[in-house]
## 1
Amino acid sequence: MAAAMKWNRAGRPGFSPHQKVTIALQMMAYDSPADLIDETHGMFESTCLDTLEQFCDTIVQVYKDEYICEPNQEDLNRLLRKAEDRGFLSMIGSSDYMHWDWKNCPTGWQ
């Protein structure tokens, strides 16, 4: 049985949960700004941003215990091997990359 139709503050039919999830995924996948969603799908920018925030919060709550945790030694070893294979030595503990040679960067960034 389908859920009852919800109405927005303007008295128009609201967006379904499927539409909201699709829009949140589109915003993340294509880096779509909320005002573009407003123009293309008719969802107000504030609703787009609220929907995206709710979607991300839900994903974190569902998966945080399994996937969002501190790495153990096995994880660290795997990440270090992968990084070194790609030329990123000493990646763990140096996420600011201040140990890199920045000779080709503008002096304001060094």
## 2
Amino acid sequence: MNKILMFDALREATDEEMLRDPRVFVLGEDVGHYGGSYKVTRGLHSKYGDLRVLDTPIAENSFTGMAIGAAMTGLRPVLEGMNMSFLLLAFNQISNNAGMLHYTSGGNFTIPLVIRGPGGVGRQLGAEHSQRLEAYFQAIPGLKIVACSTPYNAKGLLKAAIRDENPVIFFEHVLLYNLQSEIPSTEYILPLDKAEIVRTGKDVTIITYSRMRHHVVQAVDILVQQGYDPEIIDLISLKPLDISTISESVKKTNLVVIVEECMKTAGIGAELIAQINEKVFDHLDAPVIRLSSQDIPTPYNGALEQATVIHPEQIINTVKKITAIKLSNDF
């Protein structure tokens, strides 16, 4: 086992896949000589050269279109968005081209493309740099969407995404790059469509992903000391949702709390509630509760910024509230 930071885990995954497959190349703003805004591509330019680590102009629509065209012709691009919010400038290319071309070409083209980069609420990055775009992309047919949350799953998922024949949107949280943990020293690949059961329990199912996984774990550590037994599921795959794993957990606990950094209106949590109600409504002892960010542009002010997202104490109070409902129903 090696102890490693998340940005280094992502760099290792990219490096190993570039070494394994000469069709893999990286492109984006400052990914070459500078080594990436968060150093995920550090050292790759000196190792692989200009043709496989391409510094692009500040023109997301142009280089995203170029990456899609490269994927159509047999290459395997890994596109870094300096900030995922900037990819709104390439929304047309991602939706009308990356998501559709396999289908509209009658299967003649595959689009083995990874679009990865930082997103989420950081520390006073301003509204334009703090957006959570997972729900924007979730509605696009033809895409897979992944949100990593630890160095271990970041490396295993990125390697799987690069090898996949479909376009994959790969979300990394800007505040998790310096997260450190142990990962295997031998190669491993993780499935793109499976949730992770972080902790087993019987009282309530807490569903989360990305940075909020760590807020949930903090909250659950306190809840366990107080006699509660929550189950934690890290979604990892935002599209498709691993509804099978979720359903089995709900059948056991009969209660669900969703914790997300996405906006509440039409967010990931909203889709989760819809699918849970469709699949396992009869197993619920109380309505699903979702804890989501407020539906406002993220303030620059630090205190206001923190007030827009969910924190461990809110999770603790919600778990206590929903389990009390279940206990009252039992009597």
## 3
Amino acid sequence: MAVTFSSSSSTATNIFDVGKYTVELVSVEPHKCTSHPPPKPLLIATPSEASAGAFPIFLFLHGYLFYNSFYSQLIQHIASHGFIVVAPQLYSVAGADATEEIKCTAQITNWLPEGLHNFLPPHVHPNTQKIALGGHSRGGKVAFGLALGKIARTDLKLSALIGVDPVDGMDKGKQTPPPVLTYIPQSFDLGMAVMVIGSGLGEVKRNPLFPPCAPKGVNHRDFYQECRGPACYFVAKDYGHVDMLDDETGGVRGKATYCLCKNGKERAAMRAFVGGAVVAFLRGYLEGDFSSLAAIRDRHEEIAPVELQTVAFQEN
């Protein structure tokens, strides 16, 4: 597909602000479903009943030991721009091996055509011809693992892939099984467009007793280096590994998100940037409108809510 990047086209809304669609947040528990239950519990952010039409799907995977509810503000931001965001809860407790997470994600993806419409508002339809996959932290690794066909494959064609501060382990010699990074430049044969978003503070220790949350050698930089075009890469300079989460993340795990990782001043700006960048990327590679993505590339110093230390693009 020939892609023309132009930032001259006007957009209906600012991608870093809430979009034009009213959003409903739907929680789905498989054991409470009478028909077509999903393989795992889901949190779905969808345009509301008043928003009739067919919308692309973004399947988004949570980070290690996090709850999908920690991303409710982020996924509602994305959905408000005309997308159905499906955020599964892949597990409550997990060890080092991410194999089962890849298998579960494949099962959820295969479930979408027959099951997702049962949990959407009337007149809101999922467009299963336009599906993007993404994830944060270890969820980003799982998304890449499935896209690469490690352990499991999907019946559906994925159109785009997004890694939000993806991490493949504690360091280069301790990747989480199954390993995804190969340390061979442009080795990922994905057959789809990719976006990697990184955090400038993710590889900085907050506490000397704990490693950084996104260590050098297994983080966003390494994932992007192994991608082939079309691919884009953004790194937010003064923000940390979990700064795209909700402002309020409850419970012990939620409080830990403020203690274990080096954080920026506040989460709202990073969350707005990640949400807007995802919207721009999905508009481009799922809907053919690259004006928002080009605007980030060309005018990010004017329009982005965070300072970017890296902006990079690879063509086909």
